[in-house]
Amino acid sequence: MRTLTIGQLAREAGVNVQTVRYYERRGLLAEPPRRESGYREFPESDVARLGFIRRAQALGFTLAEIGDLLSLRVDPQTTSADVHRRVEAKLKDVGEKMADLRRIRSALRELATSCKAHGPVGDCPFLDALDAQGH
C-alpha cells in the first residue's frame, strides 16, 4: 500500500495542506502513523476520502454532517434508509434556506426601489429601514 506525505496527499486531492490538517483535527481523517523521520504517512485511500468530503461540502453538507455520513459508510448496521434520511433532511434544510433567501430578496428589492440613488445619505430609506428594525 502506497503512503503519501501531507503535501502529496493535499496535491493529489486538490486541497491545501492546512485543509488536510483541519480535517484531521475535526476527525474527518484519521491521524496517520509517522515515519522515523517524523513525517506522517497518509494512506492513499485518504485521497478518495478527501474527494468524498469535498463533494459532500459542494452539496451543502456541514463538516459535522459529513462526519456522520462517513461513520455510516463504515458501520455494518447502516442501511440505505439511514443514508436516505440524511439526504431528505438536507433537502428540507436547503428548501428552508431557499425560502429564506427568496424572502430576503423580496425585502431587498422593495428597499432598493424606494431608494432614489441620489441625494444625501440621510435621505436613504434603506438605512432608515435597517435602523427601524431594532425598534
Q: What is the topology, as strand order, of the major beta sheet?
A: 1-2
Strand content: under 5%
Instruction: Classify the secondary structure makeup into a structural class.
Output: mainly alpha
Compute the number of helices: 6
Explained architecture:
The protein has 135 residues and is mainly α. The protein folds into 2 domains: 1-60, Orthogonal Bundle (Multidrug-efflux Transporter Regulator, Chain: A, Domain 2); 72-135. The chain is built from 6 helices and 2 strands. It has helices spanning 6-13, 17-25, 45-58, 63-74, 80-114, 125-133, and strands at 3-4, 42-43. The chain has a two-stranded antiparallel sheet. Helix 1 (6-13) packs across helix 2 and helix 1 crosses helix 3 (45-58).
Which key phrases capture this entry?
mainly alpha, 6 helices, two-stranded antiparallel ribbon, 3% strand, 2 domains, Multidrug-efflux Transporter Regulator, Chain: A, Domain 2, single chain, 135 residues
Q: Nutshell version of this structure?
A:
The chain has 135 residues and is mainly α. The chain has helices at 6-13, 17-25, 45-58, 63-74, 80-114, 125-133; strands spanning 3-4, 42-43. The chain folds into two domains: 1-60, Orthogonal Bundle (Multidrug-efflux Transporter Regulator, Chain: A, Domain 2); 72-135.
